[in-house]
Every structure is written in C-alpha cells, then in structure tokens.
Design a protein that fits this description.
11 strands; single chain; alpha/beta; 3-stranded antiparallel sheet; 6-stranded parallel sheet; 17 helices
Length: 390
C-alpha cells in the first residue's frame, strides 16, 4: 500500500512530547523514522520512572504500550562519541528530515547544528521544537507545556475558577506544537521540490500557544476588560445528571436553542437566549432540570430532539465508543509477549494514500545493528561501535 511519505527518511533526536508526537505522525504517514537514543539518557529516564527495577521483558512491554514510539526504529548511540558521530553523519547524508527538541545551542555544541548538517546534506529539512523558539529574549528559557501557555496568555483563560488560572489537564501546547512541527516539515518538503534545498523549521511552543487566544483577540472589543473566563452563556453548558454523570450541550444557534428548551420543558427560555442579565438564573434553572434524569435518559431525549450534545465520556468509555471505533481511532497492537495493547489510530484520514499505523515501539537499540550495517559498516565494525556506546 502506498503511503503519503513513502521514501522519506527522518532522523529523530527528540525526547519530549512535541517532537515525538511530530515523528509519530510522520511515521504513520509512511516516513521511515530512525530514533537516535543516547544510552545515558535512556538510563537516566529508567531511574526517574523506576523502570531500572523492571526486567528486560517488562521494559519491552512498556515500550510497546508507548504510542509515540510506534513505527520508529531505535538506534542506541551516544552522539558525543567519535564512532557514533561518524555513523550519524552517514545517516544524515541519506536523510530528508531531522527533528530535535534540545534547547537552542545544544545540538550545535554536539556538532549537529543546522549549519553543520546543511553542509553535509543541503536538502535536509531541520526541524527544531523548543519552548520559545530559536530567537527572541526567551530563546534559552527552560520549561514545559504550562510555561508556553502562560507566556502566550492562554493559561490565564484556563481552569474552572472564574479568576485563578489552572492546568488544562491535557498537554495542549505540547500536542499543538507537535502538529505545527508536522505542518512545518511537510511545507518544507513541498518547498524543496521547487527550490531543491532544505531549510530550518523553527517551532516554538509559545508561538503555538498564542493560537489558543485567537477567539479572544478576534471578538473582545477591549482586551483590558475581558469577561471572566469560562462558559457563561446559558445555551451551552456542562450539566450534572441524576446518576452523577455529566453531559455537555452547545445549542448556540437559535433553532437548536429552541429545540433544547422544548426538550427539557423550559420553553419560556427560548426567547431569552441573548438576555445576558438572565444567564446566571437560566443556567441554574437548566441545571436543576438536568439533575432530574440520568445521562442515558437525556442522551435519548436530545438525540430525538436533534440538539447538540454529548455525554462527557471517561477515558475508558471513549476507548469503547462506537464512533471512535468506527473511525479506527482505537486500534490494538501486540506487545512482545503477544498481549494486546491499545493505541490511538492515525488522526489524519486520506482517501487514496491512507496513513498506516506501524509496528509497536521497540526497546532502545533494537535496530542499531541493522541500521549500522545498512550504512556500510562491517559486522566487526558494527559490533565495535555498539560496544563503545555502553
């Protein structure tokens, strides 16, 4: 089966969520992704999470469950050793894309900066994913997802409390940045078809996070007097049901709002949709009614009424949801011992050249021998290089 990125080779230096998310999507779209895993970093990670206490088989099971390692080959090389550097340079010469997520300057200090690798391979697409980008006063700032959200002003609009910010509960900036990295890589590959040259793709998590405040900038007449965060409109809400479950509704269009009011027996509210002064009282009325039936009962009522609604699914429920299953977004992979592991399917659907989820993640270094031999090293040289990494 032909895949969109068939023939594209990606060298993956990334470690944190945005970079691996990018290369996971590239792998599902058919690119050959080769991870460079530093033995020291692998050992440190195992100690941090207690994986050093696990057996090799248990670690293999964990790697197979790691969705972001799917479809990627793993080469265990310390980029600082002379033998590894020679092998990595050979790999770079054959690569189309490199993805890295070190702080600015770190790759250069190791000898793998953009200018150095461009001299080796002028067609290389070099994608750097960092907290605040390669330029600007915050370029060297350390941090993770919440720092990016805070820098962009997005964190101030998150959380249930009307005034205090709170963590969003899912890695919003990480995943948005990873998606932007995919877009940047694909755009650079398209540009290369015209220019014949590669280029650097600079992805900042803080840049990606600014996109989250687009609606605020577009709709607020005065940014100094923004309304309190949260959903204040009465025509949308998250409601607790009689069985202590939750249901969300978004009936903002007038006809849907009218149908919703009729479905819950509060027809008098239909003409009050834009009466902002009444919104708090209206929400309280609706909440009282919603508490009188179970989630399943309301779902049947709203389905029949044709309104906009969804039960707020737990993660286990989402993994068994008929729509998610039909979309092939929940798939089973096999761990090394044959037991099934649940993975998320490819989120990009193409009609003629569909994405193809690859093999489950393999333990660090599983493909070192094979990749080194493919670069022209003899078996004895390959064995020596592997020995030098330990």
């Amino acid at each position: 089966m032909t895949t969109p990125l068939n023939g594209i080779r990606v060298v993956d230096f990334s470690k944190f969520l945005p970079g691996p998310y990018c290369t996971w999507m590239l792998a599902d779209l058919g690119a050959e992704v080769i991870r460079i895993e530093n033995p020291r970093e692998v050992a440190k990670q195992k100690k941090v999470f207690g994986w050093d206490k696990l057996t090799d088989d248990e670690n293999a099971q964990l790697r197979a469950k790691d969705i972001l390692t799917r479809g990627k080959q793993s080469v265990l090389l310390n980029p600082g050793t002379a033998s590894a550097k020679e092998a990595i340079f050979k790999l770079i010469k054959q690569a189309d894309v490199l993805v890295e997520d070190y702080r600015p300057g770190v790759m250069e200090s190791m000898g793998y900066g953009y200018d150095a690798l461009k001299a080796i391979n002028p067609k290389l697409i070099y994608c750097s994913v960092t907290l605040c980008g390669q330029t600007g006063p915050y370029a060297n700032k350390p941090g993770h997802d919440p720092i990016a959200l805070a820098t962009a002003g997005a964190l101030s609009r998150m959380g249930g409390n009307a005034t205090a910010p709170d963590f969003p509960g899912v890695p919003v900036a990480d995943l948005l940045s990873g998606s932007n990295a995919v877009i940047g890589v694909l755009a650079a590959l398209l540009a290369r078809q015209t220019t014949g040259k590669g280029q650097q793709v600079d992805i900042a998590m803080s840049d990606a996070s600014l996109a989250l405040i687009i609606n605020v900038l577009s709709r607020a007449p005065d940014l100094n007097t923004l309304p309190a965060k949260g959903m204040h409109r009465a025509d949308s809400g998250i409601w607790r049901t009689a069985d202590d479950k939750w249901l969300v509704t978004t009936d903002m269009e007038p006809r849907y709002w009218k149908q919703f009011c009729e479905a819950i027996g509060l027809q008098a509210l239909a003409d009050e949709q834009m009466n902002k002064a009444r919104w708090p009282d209206m929400k309280a009325e609706i909440a009282s009614v919603m508490a009188t039936r179970t989630q399943a009962q309301w779902c049947r009522i709203f389905e029949q009424a044709g309104t906009q609604f969804s039960p707020v699914l737990t993660i286990p429920e989402a993994l068994e949801n008929e729509h998610n299953l039909a979309r092939e977004m929940i798939i089973n992979q096999s761990a090394p011992d044959g037991t099934p592991v649940i993975h998320i399917g490819a989120p990009v659907k193409l009609s003629d050249t569909p994405a193809k989820p690859g093999f489950p993640g393999r333990t660090a270094g599983s493909d070192t021998q094979q990749i080194l031999r493919s670069l022209g090293y003899s078996k004895s040289d390959t064995d020596q290089i592997i020995k030098e990494q330990l």
